[in-house]
Amino acid sequence: MPPRRSHKKSRAGCRRCKSRKIKCDEVHPRCGNCVKHGVPCDFEHPEIIPELQAAQAASASSPSSAGTPYTPAYSPGAESVSNASRTSRLQRAPPLCRSPPSQALSTTTPAAHRMLELRLMHQYTAMTCKTFTFTAPVTEDIWKITVPGMAFSGSQHLTDAILAVAALHLRSQSPNDKELVRASHAYMAASLAEYSATLTKGIDSTNAESLFLTASLIAFQSTATRVFIKDELTLAQATGNYPDKQGRYTAAGCYSIPFSWFHSFQGVKAVTAASWQWLRNSPVVTEVINSQAVLQLDFGPNRQTFFGHLMDGLDEELEEMANPSESHPDSPGQPFQQRRAPASPELVKSTRQAYQHAVAVLNWAHKIPHKGAPLAFPATVSKRYIEMLEERRPRALAILACFFALLKSLDSVWWLHGMARREVLGVVSLFNSDFFGPDAYSKWWPHLEWAMRIALYETSDGSPTIPPEVWGADWYAEEQALESQGGHNYYRHIELLSQMTNPTRSIPVVPD
């Protein structure tokens, strides 16, 4: 009998080879036998050692299985093995893979709601974020990637605001989808509640960025929601007159001014001023702010500007405020009453400045309409101007009609589509009613004529672009000149605003 050849024993083999009593080549991370049979090796997956030990103990306790090598699966050449013995071995063999522990995705959110939120987030990142960066494509990555990342870091109000605007965008594509209607309202209501609670606790370095971004999305939502108003007039529930916030009575069916626009945009301005000490060092916020067109207001002689005619008769109006006559009505829409108390010099001055500033913003936006400049109007007008809108002052309403007409240049944007026509017609309807008296329409029509012409303008080829000769300004040349300018940004304007505004009085009112 020839002598037995010497061989090296495997003393550090894997447990699977040891359980099968075959030699292991000890190759890491998977030995050759485990690779050959397509099974996990405890060299690579130490977590399967307990299972292998249990299987090895079970195999050792069964005398019928002693010395029987493990075959994980059927292979050609094994036809001689009976089906019964193969089944027995497979039942005793260690599993080829280990099932992960079962964990519930959520214990509070139903599966349907999770799918809706995934749908909304996909809509936001794929489509919605692009629709409010059309004037500043450089900020697309911020709204698409950075903003959701900040929301997922613990900002619930920002997360809900993102889902709300995405639901509103989907709703514009599927207006009869009641689930999207409920989602757009519910998520925005949740965002407003958390946003208000956070503002109440105070703005600091940890929440300044997210509050600014949430305020911006709230303003966007407030504007876009107006698209879904079915009728041009807000009808009262019953026939008759209803008192407004100032106690004045307005006829049922009277056009309703979208004050929520002004409140939400003013909120962005207030949050920015109150938190500028932290926002000024934020690369995200400064990039968003600097992407906006720089305000270049002209306070020159009125008649030398396009909308200068809106200031005609202002001196007489202010004189009437300071020294009201016996026969002058107390306010628009009221019957003739006793003599009013004279307005204070401070109120007369702030009224003049409010009109001058509003008209200057219109003149600036009229030159560069496609850069998103008209959207600066509700954010930059003064509080006094908004008060005069609430009082239904004819001059303030005429200025408002011109602002809405400027939005015609952005009519191709889904959340502004049809806005110019609907809102201008609504404002003009106030002049053609009994609210201001029989002569109001004829008196103010010269100041409303341009707004009506632009709101009703339709190009022959269906293009949204209005020719400069119809628009009243060479906007193409102005916008090209703006692009050629360098070194100008919005940073200086915000610096000035933050210095002029008391931060403790800048906390915005959450819009209704």
Automatic annotation (TrEMBL):
Keywords: Nucleus. Residues 54-66 have a biased composition (Low complexity). One of its GO terms (molecular function) is DNA-binding transcription factor activity, RNA polymerase II-specific. Residues 13-43 form the Zn(2)-C6 fungal-type domain. SMART domains: GAL4. The keyword Transferase does not apply. InterPro entries: Zn2-C6_fun-type_DNA-bd_sf, Zn2-C6_fungal_TF, Zn2Cys6_DnaBD. It comes from the Eukaryota. CDD domains: GAL4. Residues 54-109, 318-343 are annotated as: Disordered. Gene3D superfamilies: Zn(2)-C6 fungal-type DNA-binding domain. Residues 80-90, 100-109 have a biased composition (Polar residues). This is Zn(2)-C6 fungal-type domain-containing protein. It comes from Pseudoneurospora amorphoporcata.
